[in-house]
Specification:
By secondary structure, the chain is mainly alpha-helical. The protein has a single domain (44-182), classed as Serine Threonine Protein Phosphatase 5, Tetratricopeptide repeat (Alpha Horseshoe), CATH 1.25.40. Helix content is 66%, strand content 3%. The chain is built from 7 helices and 2 strands, in the order ββααααααα. The chain has helices at 30-72, 76-89, 94-106, 123-139, 143-156, 161-173, 177-182, and strands at residues 9-11, 17-19. A two-stranded antiparallel sheet has the order 1-2. Helix 1 runs antiparallel to helix 2 (76-89), helix 2 (76-89) runs antiparallel to helix 3 and helix 4 runs parallel beside helix 6 (161-173). The mean pLDDT is 80.
């Protein structure tokens, strides 16, 4: 009479049955397979991150092209709204900061960019508002206000090179070039 085979059951030489867990039988290749799986997973993450960065870059470039077209058409009020949206979508975007500041200066609305005492933005968002206001005031040749806002920007965001450059220019234009060099 033939014995029925039961999965996951082995019979040893002494006749006792030994149960083992279901799954593949362990081999010496386990660590190699794990390394391959981890390498493939890492590669997939890198490719995904690159695709995300490429899509973000395309979105930035499309947004810049659209708002610059508004500027060329002289639609500064609409451009200001679009610049603001771009800055919300892509915080710290130097082209958007400069474009917004330039348009506000041309419209003589620098105070619209300056964060008020009751405004709640903190950190980089507040620094970004200060930078836009400072550049705007610089463009309007209100150097005292420009220095005030740009100094606050550099304090909030020391890595904001554009704000540091405009702060140096504002100090130099106000007859204090030595302070501009330190900025």
């Amino acid at each position: 009479m033939e014995r029925p085979t039961i999965p996951n059951l082995r019979v040893c030489a002494s006749g006792q049955s030994i149960h083992r867990k279901a799954g593949p039988i362990p081999t010496k290749r386990g660590p190699q397979r794990l390394a391959i799986v981890l390498a493939v997973a890492s590669l997939a993450r890198v490719i995904g991150a690159r695709q995300d960065r490429a899509a973000r870059f395309r979105d930035e470039q499309t947004g810049l092209a659209e708002v610059r077209a508004l500027d060329r058409a002289g639609k500064r009020d609409q451009a200001v709204v679009q610049w603001s949206l771009l800055l919300r979508q892509f915080p710290g975007m130097p082209d958007a900061q400069l474009g917004l500041a330039n348009d506000l200066a041309l419209l003589d609305r620098c105070e619209a960019a300056a964060p008020g005492p009751s405004d709640s933005p903190t950190g980089s968002a507040r620094g970004e508002q200060e930078a836009v206001a400072g550049i705007c005031y610089y463009r309007r040749n209100d150097l005292r206000a420009a220095i005030k806002h740009l100094h606050a920007t550099v304090k909030q965001a020391p890595d904001d090179r554009q704000a540091a450059i405009f702060l140096g220019r504002a100090y130099a234009s106000s007859g204090r070039p030595e302070e501009g060099i330190r900025a």
